[in-house]
Design a protein that fits this description.
The complex is a heterodimer of chains A (about 180) and B (about 575). Helices cover about 35% and strands about 40% of the residues of chain A. Chain A has about 180 residues and is an alpha+beta fold. In chain A, strands 5, 6, 7, 8 and 9 form a five-stranded antiparallel sheet that branches. In chain A, strands 2-3-1-4 form a four-stranded antiparallel sheet, sandwiched between helices. In chain A, strand 2 and strand 3 form a beta hairpin. Chain A is elongated and about 70 Å long. By secondary structure, chain B is α/β, with parallel strands linked by helices. Chain B has three domains: about 170 residues, Rossmann fold; about 160 residues, 3-Layer(aba) Sandwich (Rossmann fold), CATH 3.40.50; about 170 residues, Thiamin diphosphate (ThDP)-binding fold, Pyr/PP domains (Rossmann fold), CATH 3.40.50.970. Chain B is about 40% helix and about 15% strand. Chain B has a six-stranded parallel sheet with strand order 3-2-4-5-7-6. In chain B, helix 2 links the parallel strand 2 and strand 3. In chain B, helix 3 runs parallel beside helix 4, helix 8 crosses helix 13 and helix 15 packs parallel to helix 22. Classes of the chains: A alpha+beta (about 180), B alpha/beta (about 575). At the A-B interface, helix 1, helix 2 and helix 6 of A face loops of B. The structure holds thiamine diphosphate.
């Protein structure tokens, strides 16, 4: 059965790694729904968050191949309910449309969105939330004409107290010192 | 002002050579060109320590390095120039990736200031080789050379081995710095040896002790892990019949009581049929390749599976494992051996013998003693094997002769097979034989090659002559791209589309390359020719004209179950 998975990949920050990571997915014909890449909470370690819709069996195979990449430290797979996630969306609407009626302002308030910038020509609205929420706002605002719209990839943290990787890193550094 | 004397600085090129020497390299295979010239220039002062074999094509250089690595267990080294030099190396690198062969391939690259400008002979080597290497890296500064080399050698040979590419820009080769070399045996993001779960060992032993019809599948992991004696100990104590994959060939002696033959498409009858009868399969360092399993939906359905492998990504990849034991089989096998009981399984073994007798009667006898006038591949291979006392290193190219060689050549010791398994690269054989002989000069190296594949890297006869490499070549000439023709005969209504070869005069070609050779067209000439092959000092080639439309049987047709293996 296909379901949504969030994969967190911790890696060294090397050029070209993102393409190696995405190749693992494309070779196994798993479509990437969203991808984000940033520093992690641990100094010097990069984190790539990928959302896919696939089977448990397939995602485990993908994870095996990801961990095999030399510069990947470790990857973790989470089900939708194991993570808290968020996306951010930006909407550009014409300032004239906002001034014409208070309907736009009402929508913005109701959706807990906020205004980032107002110029004579356009206004930029920001909303963070789940995809369904940012999509709903898009549809509402689009009645008044959205001239630009962008939604970020998903960022996610687990419901665990700290990063799983910290313990893992400690373990391998310990192994190293016992070897030396 | 008084200036403190600088520590001695050396060039990046010299650092490349010293790093190779520091890693214990004494031979490398390559081909020069503009972007790698500084390294070749530095090498010129070190020929006493580093023997460079100049091949006739970069593909040959990499295959030779593979042959060297496969017989020695050491890292093979290839060196090529940028652009076309690097792209010519790609086939060999891919071959090494699929067959887990430890290689370090060095490619020259344009100066870093020119990168990304489509400069002369610039190609994105790191991009091209990314999916076919275990690791690759572009070195843009001389100072980075020692660490990159230390990392490359460590990665190539540790864990599951594989090829590594180092792409070195020309300015990094010229740059000067204070050289210091430190070997590496730890990389934070790399776990060559996965943790073994000891409860799985107990469970494996329990299943083995309960099994009535167990079967072991021996893969190249046993050879790569130097675990041949551990494997034999396990098999002998538990009295379990063992089959092998193409790359597991020679890990256990051919005449061992428990050796029941080769798995897969052109493997032996008994192990293929019995796979679907077994109640337990113990896979040791093998990866359930589709050429081994046939139709997965009908594969080993009555058996529980125990999978031992060093690469966690192989477990549950193709076949679900009831018990998986990660780690080097050299370590994990003895843990299991300790816990298994000595059980007499001679009744079960007899079932294999029964099937083997059928195969011997219906196929092997006819192949070795054919009733037709023309020579058959199997008979030539069988006689050559005997002439070398069943104890030579066998190298093959790809095609019918490869499968015939795997079936009819016999072995007494391990690391005696060099063949292209995963990629099935025609043209692999001749250069791989060169590398194998360089790696094991004291052993006989005999290559079996078809008339098709021979012509893909035939120019390496020049390397054999120039570097005086005494390889023995058996050219099995059937005037066809035999393996493809066989499929056309069986599955395409005998429509021989572009598989017939109008061949050159191979004897004339040998003469041109100063390769002593002879032609064998009839059975009565075979023994004396083989005698010459064995006894001649230096390289020798015999060209045997074999049956044009001979077929390799048994055969598991593509998409069929292994137990539906055809005897004709
Ligand atoms: C580089 C490459 N091209 C094509 C093939 C497909 N192929 C596999 S076997 C074969 C025929 C080999 O003919 P030959 O070398 O004469 O050996 P034979 O099968 O007759 O023993 C071909 C074309 C291949 N394996 N490798």
């Amino acid at each position: 059965m296909k379901q949504e998975f969030t994969i967190s990949i911790f890696s060294e920050n090397h050029i070209g790694l993102l393409s190696q990571v995405s190749t693992v997915f494309t070779r196994r014909n798993v479509n990437i729904e969203s991808i984000t890449s940033s520093e992690s909470a641990i100094h010097g370690i990069h984190k790539i968050t990928i959302i896919v819709f696939t089977t448990r069996e397939q995602i485990e195979k993908v994870r095996g191949q990801l961990d095999k990449l030399i510069d990947v430290i470790k990857s973790y797979v989470f089900k939708a309910e194991d993570v808290i996630h968020q996306e951010i969306a930006l909407y550009k609407v014409s300032t004239a449309a906002i001034l014409e009626s208070d309907e736009v302002e009402r929508i913005i308030r109701k959706h807990n969105a906020r205004i980032l910038e107002i110029t004579k020509e356009y206004t930029v609205v920001e909303k963070s939330g789940h995809k369904s929420e940012t999509q709903e706002l898009f549809e509402k605002l689009n009645q008044f004409g959205v001239t630009q719209f962008v939604r970020s990839g998903r960022v996610a943290v687990t419901k665990l107290k700290k990063e799983l990787l910290s313990d893992y890193l400690k373990k391998i550094e310990d192994e190293k010192t016992t070897k030396d | 002002m008084f200036k403190k004397k600088d520590k001695k600085k050396i060039s990046g090129s010299e650092a490349v050579i010293l790093s190779l020497i520091n890693e214990g390299v004494d031979v490398l295979f390559g081909y020069p060109g503009g972007a790698i010239m500084p390294v070749y220039d530095a090498m010129h002062d070190y020929y006493d320590k580093l023997n460079h074999i100049l091949t006739r094509h970069e593909q040959g250089a990499i295959h030779a390095a593979q042959g060297y690595a496969r017989v020695t267990g050491k890292v093979g080294v290839g060196i090529v120039t940028s652009g076309p030099g690097a792209t010519n190396a790609v086939t060999g690198i891919a071959d090494a990736m699929l067959d887990s062969t430890p290689l370090v391939v060095i490619s020259g690259q344009v100066a870093s200031s020119l990168l990304g400008t489509d400069a002369f002979q610039e190609i994105d080597v790191v991009g091209i080789t990314q999916p076919i290497t275990k690791w690759n890296y572009q070195i843009k500064r001389a100072e980075d050379i020692p660490e990159a080399f230390a990392k490359a050698f460590y990665l190539a040979k540790s864990g599951r081995p594989g090829p590594v590419v180092l792409d070195i820009t020309k300015d990094a080769q010229f740059g000067e710095f204070e050289y210091e070399y430190k070997k590496i045996d730890f990389i934070r993001s790399y776990r060559p040896l996965p943790k073994t779960d000891y409860t799985q060992i107990d469970e494996a032993a329990r299943l083995i002790n309960l099994a009535k019809k167990p079967m072991a599948l021996i893969g190249q992991g046993v050879i790569l892990g130097n675990a041949e004696s551990e494997a034999l100990e396990f098999l002998e104590k538990s009295d379990i019949p063992a089959a092998y994959t193409l790359l597991g060939l020679s890990a256990i002696p051919s005449d061992h009581r428990l050796n029941i033959g080769m798995l897969g498409m052109h493997g032996h009858y008994a192990p293929n049929v019995k796979t679907n009868d077994a109640d337990l399969i113990i896979a040791v360092g093998m990866r359930f390749d589709d050429r081994v399993t046939g139709n997965l939906d009908k594969y080993a359905k009555k058996a529980k599976i125990i999978h031992l492998d060093i690469d966690p990504a192989e477990v549950n990849k193709n076949v679900y494992a009831d018990v998986s034991i990660l780690g080097n089989v050299k370590v994990t096998l003895p843990l299991i051996s300790e816990k298994v009981s000595s059980i007499d399984r001679s009744e079960w073994l007899k079932e294999f013998q029964g099937l083997t007798n059928i195969e011997t009667r219906k196929i092997i006898k006819k192949e070795i003693n054919p009733s037709h006038k023309k020579l058959s591949m199997g008979e030539v291979i069988h006689r050559v094997s005997q002439a070398f006392d069943d104890d030579a290193i066998m190298v093959t190219d790809v095609g019918q002769h490869q499968m015939m060689a795997a079936r009819y050549f016999k072995f007494k010791q391990t690391r005696s097979v060099v063949t292209s398994g995963g990629l099935g690269t025609m043209g692999f054989g001749l250069p791989a034989a060169i590398g194998a002989k360089m790696g094991k000069p004291d052993r006989d190296v005999v290559l079996f090659v078809g008339d098709g594949g021979f012509q893909m890297t035939i120019q390496e006869l020049g390397t054999i002559f120039q570097s005086k490499i005494p390889v023995k070549v058996v050219l099995l000439n059937n005037s066809f791209l035999g393996m493809v023709r066989q499929w056309q005969e069986l599955f395409f209504d005998k429509r021989y589309a572009s598989t017939e070869l109008i061949n050159p005069d191979f004897q004339g070609i040998c003469k041109g390359y100063h390769m002593p050779s002879e032609l064998v067209e009839s059975r009565d000439k075979l023994d004396s020719a083989i005698k010459n092959l064995v006894e001649h000092e230096g390289p020798y080639l015999i060209e045997a004209i074999v049956e044009k439309e001979g077929n390799v049987f048994p055969m598991v047709p593509a998409g069929a179950s292994v137990s539906d293996i055809r005897l004709e």
